[in-house]
Write a structure and sequence with these properties.
Layout: H1 9-40, H2 44-47, H3 62-69, H4 71-102, H5 110-122, H6 127-136, H7 154-164, H8 169-177, H9 182-190, H10 195-211, H11 214-219, H12 228-237, H13 243-247, H14 257-287
Helix pairs in contact: 1-14, 3-14, 4-7, 4-10, 4-12, 8-9, 10-14, 12-14
């Protein structure tokens, strides 16, 4: 018969303090998100009075209606969705192809490529050389500035390469016997068994593309090519006045620039919050790549 060992007073005290600290950390993490959500659903002019902490005082969809009625915000949202989808897919495929080649020990010059790539993890040319390069490549003020510079990441290559080296050689040898070449093996053999690492890198790159505002601020002048995060940055920069509401053509006196800012924050973060739970399983598996040898 099994007996449960009763915890000592010291162990019970430690557990209590530990749980209390974790609850405080969770509250400090989640409450700011809840505060923004609650205020975004409150009438804008009423929210300026303050005192809204847990529930909307005057519930209203006016802030979100103002956001979706603003053509500039919707255009920025479309640009963000497009660059996130295209940028993530192209980044994953391109980085995976390079990593697959470098994962082969018989690749000529493989060590040299790895050394050069490692140097880029610690040193970069800086903002001004990067800007001049983007301009000379003809990417300035074009949609391609979101895609081409983000095609490759050496950090993600290391994750890919570690995973590919753990794939049994027998899978590739069987495919070669059937007449498959390297590209066919990569597409039809390697990628299907690499879902954990593909999902992990896709999550990394997707969040990076979605949250990126810097590229739109530095390399884009055309307002129709600015992503939602750059648009949100400008809303925050203009938060001292109601100029944002005026620029959006909003005549509803219950909406303010602050309420529009909060509603836009919720809209920009919601897609990542919705997608993450579906990728969390692969994300955890991908983060464990190479940490345990079996």
């Amino acid at each position: 018969m099994f007996s449960l060992k009763r915890k000592t007073y010291g162990e019970q005290t430690f557990d209590f303090i530990n749980i209390l600290l974790m609850l405080l950390v969770c509250f400090a993490t989640l409450y700011p998100i809840w505060y923004v959500l609650v205020n975004s659903f409150n009438e804008g002019t009423d929210a300026m009075r303050g005192g809204i902490y847990w529930w909307p005082r005057i519930f209203s969809f006016g802030n979100y209606e103002a956001v979706f009625d603003n053509s500039g915000i919707m255009t920025a949202m479309f640009v963000t969705v497009a660059k996130t989808l295209i940028g993530t897919v192209t980044h994953v495929l391109f980085t995976a192809m390079v990593a697959y080649a470098l994962s082969k020990k018989d690749l000529i010059g493989g060590r040299i490529y790895l050394v050069i790539g490692t140097i880029t993890l610690f040193f970069s040319g800086g903002l001004i050389p990067s800007f001049l390069l983007i301009r000379d490549l003809g990417l300035f003020d074009t949609f391609g500035v979101y895609i081409i510079p983000a095609l490759f990441s050496f950090f993600n290559l290391i994750i890919f390469m570690t995973f590919f080296r753990e794939i049994p050689d027998s899978l590739e040898e069987a495919a070669r016997i059937d007449g498959a070449n390297d590209f066919t093996i990569f597409i039809r053999v390697v990628l299907p068994v690499s879902m954990p690492v593909l999902a992990t890198i896709a999550l990394f790159q997707g969040v990076s593309q979605w949250n990126d505002y810097f590229a739109g601020m530095i390399y884009i002048n055309n307002p129709d090519l600015q992503p939602i995060q750059t648009y949100l940055y400008r809303i925050i920069a203009q938060s001292s006045s109601n100029q944002m509401a005026a620029d959006a053509g909003i005549v509803n006196k219950t909406v303010t620039s602050q309420s529009i800012k909060l509603a836009t924050m919720v809209i920009t973060t919601m897609p990542i919050v919705v997608v993450y739970p579906f990728l969390q399983k692969y994300f955890v598996q991908g983060m464990m790549i190479g940490s345990v040898k079996g």
